Amino acid sequence: MSSSTSSRDDVAQVAGEIDPDYPIDPVPRHARKSLFSLAIVLLGFTFFTPTMLAGAQIGAAFDVGTLIWVLILGSAVLGVYVAVIGGIGARTGLTTVMMCRYSLGTTGAKFASLLLGGTQVGWYGVTVATLAGLTASALDWSGRGIEIALMIAGGAVMGVTAYYGYKGMYALSIVSVPLLLVLAGWVTWRSLDEVGGWSGLTAIVPSETMSIAAAVTIVVGTFASGGTQAPNWTRFARTPSAGFWACLVAFLIGELLMLGFGAIGALSFGEGDFVLVLYQLGLVGWGLVFLVANLWTTNDNTAYNFGVAGAEIANSRSKKPFVIGGVVLGTLLAITGIYDNLIEYLVWLGILIPPLGGVVIGDFLARWRGGMPSASVLPAFEWRNLGAYVVAAVAAWWSNEAGWFIPPVVGVVVAVVAVLAVQRGRRPVAEPVG
Fold this sequence. Notes:
Belongs to the purine-cytosine permease (2.A.39) family. InterPro entries: CodB, Pur-cyt_permease. The chain is mainly alpha-helical. The chain has one domain (36-423): Hydantoin permease (Orthogonal Bundle). The protein has 20 helices and no strands. It has helices at residues 3-14, 35-46, 49-59, 64-92, 96-104, 109-138, 144-163, 166-194, 197-202, 212-222, 224-228, 231-234, 240-269, 274-280, 284-314, 320-336, 342-352, 354-368, 383-402, 407-422. The longest helix has 31 residues, at 284-314. The termini are close together.
């Protein structure tokens, strides 16, 4: 980041013109956060009830020994991918969609903002629907009108911390993450006790069938969109390594825990939803606490994502209007039934989103490691990289259709290799990063 850019940011900050979350500007050094702070916020993001549902569906298709390796493989693929792009975000100080301006061009980046922001609006709707349905079940409320009212109330409340940005999300996560870990650990122990311990769990015969590639694609799909936007938080990291490790903790360990809790609950109680397992244990009150804390810490991050994507599209230094608009749209999607197509939605996310992250990673390695140029010299479209994305997305789709290897991995690898090939020898003169 050049001295002229720093001076401009400092003047704008004094004048109160820049959102304290810097949606379209590099995060200045004085606003950077600790590794602990980043890890807590990102863990709050990955502690997500629908991830448990994915774990439950995967768990029904494998014996326990195979299941463990499948979940580890899927979480490792997701964790390493997100950690790499998160480290790049920490180094540049930019959100994912702002980095796409360098990789896809100033106009081409609008595609990335629509894709990433749009999928996050969809996730917001999935989460709102989950909250409303499980709350109504816990309180024994029936009727479509009541469920819609819960969706509207939940959608509005969960957007509040995103509206206030990083500070609001950290305050919520520092309370909820330890609570969720303790409660989930205790219920997992109870689940094992229900089936006679580890030996009883290993004796359970799979009731469904699923390929390992499909299972890993579903795991990656749970956070393909959100993980690709990890730079939205890691840009606050003090060092690139802090951004890398915060992502690895959240998207490998946090994701693995959520998948494991869901799988064990499904195998032990025949119920894939962790909250409903709590209800079966007679812990309705704690179930509601877990539900609200779990979904809120994820959905405020989701709202934050589509807020900064909207800010990039409009070139606005405030994300707040776009947080509000996305909350309204996501809630409407919940009301119209987006939850009913969750698994198909996850598969498509695992196909379309990772190649975009692969383009950013490949372009950074090819051209921007030494620094980022002034945004004023960027082209409207970086056609080479846009073509590389299309090729990588088609390759991921073919991999899924053919049942060959792991589609998200194919998408990322093809994107990185394609960008390195088309950008060979085109490294521009750039300004030092940071």
